[in-house]
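#data-curation
PF: Archiving a pair of folding outputs for the training set. Convention for this channel: one message per protein, sequence first, structure tokens after, nothing in between. First:
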Amino acid sequence: MSANSLLTILATVVPAFLIFLFIYSHDEHREPAKLIAKVTLFGALIAIPVIIVVSIIKTYGTPEAPLQRSFYEAFFWAAIPEELFKLLTVYWVAYNRKEFDEPFDGIIYATASSLGFAVLENFFYVSAGGIQLALVRAVSAIPLHLFCGLIMGYYIGRAKFTPKHLSPAPFWVSALILPITFHGVYDAVLFYQHYTMANPSISELAVIIGSMILPMVVIGIFLLRKMKKYNVYFLSLYYEIPVTKLEILLKNVIKSEPVLNELNQVQANQLVTLPVENLTETEKNNISGVHLPPPRKNSRGFLGLVYALLGSFGVLIFGLATLGYLSEFNEEIHKPLLLLLMGFSTFNFFLLFLKGFRRNREKGKIRSMSMKILLFVSYIGSSSIGIDIIKKIEEGDLEPSENNYIFLSIFSILWLIAFFNKSKKPE
């Protein structure tokens, strides 16, 4: 297997797993790995019924006008069947399992279902389009699927833990309609561009994709943080247990499911009558026979290991790619440009390795989430445009358009801003 093929596979798989791990790291009571893997696997397998359903729908034809055709194909060939089967996967595989015991779990399982489908779909597209398409989809289709899953999962979690006097129907409707809407509009705009514009530039694609993906990412992160903040509150409404007394059982608990499974067996009135204010820590840890394991530091060592492995693997792949491209590149004068691009990519993966290696250590300064996102987006943007410039040079166009260099400069400046923007870690 060539270095370019390995690089393409890496760009196909890694972005989806990194986004999933970002979402997964917010879950304070971690889900069983086997169940997550099962949901992910079935999320990939739903491609089979999706293909069958879409094949049947295609027999009815499509509208002729570009706008109507774009929206028809986007919703009936992609968004509706794909999001419907993702939701059914979560319902059939995880919804009724005892491990699904808090609202936040809906986000984890729906995102896992989207992860499986996104990776499989990406392989089909990238196998035909190569590394450039893989990089484009890394900042477009992959976030689309994962954050549609996040939005869907938020409402699935709310539906399962709706207070008994309310109907879960509005949450189920939102869990299906919102992802379908985001997905359908995204595909419709791209299809319309395909039917009406010939060979759009990178800057045009960046504007089209960014204007649709960024709002969805913002909404997804908002719902993620809202669920993390109000997860216990939603549970307290469902079990009719005061929040303060429920938090006693959940605070500083080891990140595992058995505690919540035991909690589900405790009667609400037992907790309501507990004089918790006067209890010692030992007594609090044995309320109603629910034994809480000793506290454990939230080291997130698993994510640190993943980051370190991905970072070291990325350095190796980009190193091999650099050597391979330099040996095949004929334009001596442009070899420094190629070497700079590959070195830039290698350095970013080295940063990822350091992030994983140092994740469990105390650091004096931290980078905000917005700066982390900007660092990732600007790296992908500058690398994509750099590859496009090199491709044009290889094809004989020694003077690529000024827009390419303008956007390359903008993304490079944004990367520098994000790289150096750190704030002192609060005490």
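PF: Second:
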Amino acid sequence: MRSGGTEKAEARRVAPEAEAVLSGPSSASRPASGRPRSLPVSGLLLAALLLVLPATALAGKTSKREKGDYGTTYWTHLDQAPYPAKGFKYKDDTVGIFVPRHYCPVLIRATKKGKHRPPDYSCYSEKQWKKLKKQGYSVRRVDAVDYVVHFHGHSNTVAKTFANHKLREQFSLSLQNAILVVPQGPVNVVDSDCGKLESKNGFRNLLKEVHALLQDEGVVGRKQRIGRIILTSHSGGYKCTAMSIKLGGIEISEVFLFDSLYSYTEVFFNWLKSPKGKDRRLINVYFRDKPRARSEELMAMLKSARIAFAHLTDSQMQKENFSRKRLAKESILFIETDLGHSQCTRDNFNYRDYLFSSRLKRFRSTDWFKKKGLDKLELNP
């Protein structure tokens, strides 16, 4: 696998003819009269190509690759990161990208003819393809790359978010075949602003650059496209989530809010109410007074629009044996939690289980946790 830095350096090397176009004629290209000669056609073509190349093709770098028990974290600095941005004082352009150890870039989607059951997914290989065909499955190749983007809360950094909420561990244990992206917001201050994400197509530009960088890293293929996108946020990450839905310029499939509905209820309502709303999914966990008030406001809006939703408490979920399988069937779910503000992502493996219930593509069945004893697993501080 080639390093992203090496490929970026190679991408920035400009052919001599193009350099002549970009910097102007050198003394070597001038006749005695002092008038420059006509530029070669190849130089003009190269210059034109450089002008139309997307910005992300020359942007972004990986500063560190951190391998762990659960996967690999790419610490990156991206041009399309939320910061720096015009009109904002913050400068940190860090974006943490986590690729779980089990991640497979290309999948096989297998279905049995005549049987009404969800498709099975497995990692692509010619051997597996032939095996499934022989067993009577209808198979097709899946090249789309799914992403989960998490927006952290106030007084935080990407590193602290990974550590305090055990996001990488829980993301890996969710078994979803997706990639986790955590952009840096305002560093260690009480501020919900999100820089470039407050501009049209800001979120799409960020994700396209993430995707291009992972192609450079050899994590995903050159011809693979962006697939389903889930947004998750804790606390003050609500604004970035709302702006990505409203202005992001790319379809968001699911949203998970962890005590994070402080404002923009109309944005979330319109997202659910739209013609595409029936295919979208919201899980909203709330604890503090303000997220509680906004949650009640959003539930009233949904009720008035005759949009169905479920509303439960932690204790009701436990009493009713609210299994992962049932959780996956709920399209809009409000959960009043008693876990606390900072614990609602981590305790009870909430982040893991809500991701497990998502409509992303995973390899394991819902009874896998019990078989492996993971229901009794503890996340160490």
